[in-house]
Design goal:
seven-stranded mixed sheet, 42% helix, elongated
């Protein structure tokens, strides 16, 4: 494939846009602090190399042709992309991270994150965001190994501090026709061991399965709550599920919450941790501020 060389320049497109936005060459020349003749020459040269007419002068005003309207719209995308590229280079030179990794414990209802993520998109200055679902030891690994920038966890490893951000709840559920649902409630824990338990796979390289009730003789492991819900809804086994996953199905009667002897549910607190501490980059800190609802600080950070 032959090497492509652009016939036009970004400066020519910017001048073309300014002539339209300012309503003519004279006002555009004032805004850009250039001579009117240099603007005329730039647009004429642009039209010449493209082989199309972009503007036609009617009276004292430059008016877009039909082709010019299409080219104006596309050229704005081009100059915007160039501006963002230059801004990204500046941000990286200033220490702004090209990517931020957010690790979320799967019990966390991430729908509450959407407003923060929407704001982050506006303030992220082109940085990419990587979101990873984590479970149990996998979440702790990201903290200890500093392999994520922002972590939401239900457990703080020794030596780390976190900002309380939310609470979580896990309900014990099964299908309404499951044998456990036919028993008198609350169900004795020994009864659970006779039935298939659906558990979520620990995302760690070296998992430590020391949390939750894992004494069932039969156990199936899945990678996500959605898959666990499908199995439970099909009448296969029981599972601990958070309300944000199970509530809708419970309201429809597709699954049923079990009452367990000595435990109505599992609950706890969720914390936000910045594993890299003082080495946390400015973009990751901005994301953390937005998640915590510190909107004003994030806006200041975005324009500074």
């Amino acid at each position: 494939m032959a090497h492509y060389r652009a016939k036009s320049t970004l400066e020519q497109w910017r001048i073309f846009q300014a002539v339209i936005d300012c309503g003519g060459y004279a006002h555009a020349a004032d805004k850009l602090n250039k001579s009117q003749s240099s603007l005329n020459h730039a647009v004429a040269k642009l039209q010449q190399v493209l082989g199309v007419q972009l503007l036609e002068v009617k009276g004292r005003k430059a008016v877009l042709t039909a082709v010019g309207e299409v080219m104006l719209r596309r050229s704005r995308q081009l100059t915007q992309t160039a501006q963002e590229l230059e801004q990204l280079a500046h941000n990286l030179e200033q220490g702004w991270e090209p990517e931020v990794k957010l690790a979320l414990e799967m019990v966390f209802d991430r729908s509450t994150l959407i407003p923060a993520l929407r704001k982050f998109q506006d303030f992220s200055r082109g940085s990419r965001l990587s979101i990873e679902d984590t479970v149990l030891t996998g979440t702790l690994e990201h903290i200890r190994e500093k392999s994520a920038d922002v972590v939401i966890t239900h457990h703080l490893p020794k030596g780390y501090i976190g900002e309380p951000i939310d609470d979580y709840v896990m309900d014990l559920v099964c299908h309404p026709d499951h044998p456990l649902a036919q028993l008198e409630q609350p169900v004795a824990q020994d009864e659970l061991s006779q039935h298939l338990q659906i558990v979520i796979r620990d995302t760690a390289e070296h998992p430590q399965e020391d949390e939750g009730w894992l004494k069932a003789e039969q156990r199936w492991t899945v990678s996500h709550f959605d898959e666990a819900l499908r199995l439970v809804r099909s009448g296969l086994g029981f599972c601990w599920l958070p309300p944000y996953i199970a509530e809708r199905e419970m309201k429809k009667g597709a699954i049923r919450k079990l009452q367990l002897e000595g435990s109505s549910c599992r609950k706890g607190s969720l914390y936000m941790v910045l594993p890299k501490g003082e080495q946390t980059g400015p973009c990751a800190r901005q994301l953390a501020d937005l998640i915590m609802g510190k909107e004003i600080e994030a806006q200041k950070a975005a324009v500074s």
